[in-house]
Amino acid sequence: MDLELETNKRDHQTVLTVRGEIDVYTAPRLRQAIVDLVDAGAVNLVIDMEKVNFLDSTGLGVLVEGLKRVRTRGGDLSIVVTQDKIVKIFEITGLNKAFSLHTSVDHALGEPVSG
Amino acid sequence: MMSGPTADGGPVPGLELEVPPKPAFVRTARHAVAALARLHEAPEDLVEDIKLAVSEACNPAVARTEAGPDSATDPLTIVAAVNAGRIEIEVFDPNGKVAREVTGAPADIDTQDLPFDRVLALPIVRGLVDEVAITQESGGARMRMLVALTPATESPASS
Question: A88 vs B55: CB contact, 8 Å cut-off?
Fold first, then answer.
């Protein structure tokens, strides 16, 4: 399965829904999507990865870049992740401490976002 | 190259494949090794770990190739086989240069001084496999990983 990206505006936050595999082949598309959103002023991002079935270090690197990008502009980036295999990757790299991880988009949107 | 019995009762060869160090082919490599693991009845969560480990083993070569048009594009060789209840996976990059050789139990591997692209990758591999060795050879860089399949699958002690 390739990568599918969908953007929705919710209040003052932007939800980027990702489906498929995030690897060295598809990660550049995710990187560009985040860059485009932030350049357009969407600095409070929720990335919904509930339908992501594969994530490697390349994808993690893109997320870290995204986090730095929004924070330098006064925003924040939250991630929705429910599958154990994806949560595990955040945990073994320690990035579960760097990101705000949530179990649903509603939960992510309900959290106060710094800005 | 033959290994133990599989779900359908027949012997299944290990696999060896060569893929160009390009992003589109990493998926091919991981799914091929995953298929071998599934034939040996590896549980799905373990198959997912194996897929990720294979991808991480291939990614440095891909990143190097993508970094510049003059980078060498000799194919990666991926060899996998199941023996004695363990799957052994080797990824050989003929143009690879190892930043620092590592060998042994994953918990013993220090990742503090690795360059950024390996700072994420090696901890991931370390968290997925039972043994890992990354070695520099005269002909390139080799990553060798061992993962135990579930004891219930191929335990020699079971009767």
Answer: no
**Is A3-105 assigned to CATH 3.40.190.10?**
no
User: What is this model's ipTM?
Assistant: 0.88
Query: B77-91, B124-138, B144-158: which range is least confident on average?
Result: B144-158
**DSSP secondary-structure letter at B114?**
S
On chain A, the residues whose CB falls within 8 A of the CB of B60 are none
Nearest to B120 among A23, A60, A85 (CB): A60
**Owner of token pair 């995204």:** A66
**Residue boundaries of the structural domains of chain A:** 3-105
Supply the Cα-derived Rg of chain A in whole angstroms: 13
DSSP B109: -
pTM score, whole prediction: 0.85
Query: B15-153 falls under which CATH superfamily?
Result: Histidine kinase-like ATPase, C-terminal domain (3.30.565.10)
Domain boundaries, chain B: 15-153
Question: Could you say which residues from 79 to 98 on chain A have a Cβ atom under 8 Å away from some Cβ of chain B?
Answer: 84-85, 88-89, 92-94
**Closest CA relative to residue B104, chosen from B137, B142, B145, B136:** B145
Chains A, B: CB contacts within 8 A come to 54
**Span B19-36, mean pLDDT?**
96
pLDDT, tens digit (0-9, with 9 covering 90-100), for A51-102: 999 999 999 999 999 999 999 999 999 999 999 999 999 998 888 988 999 9
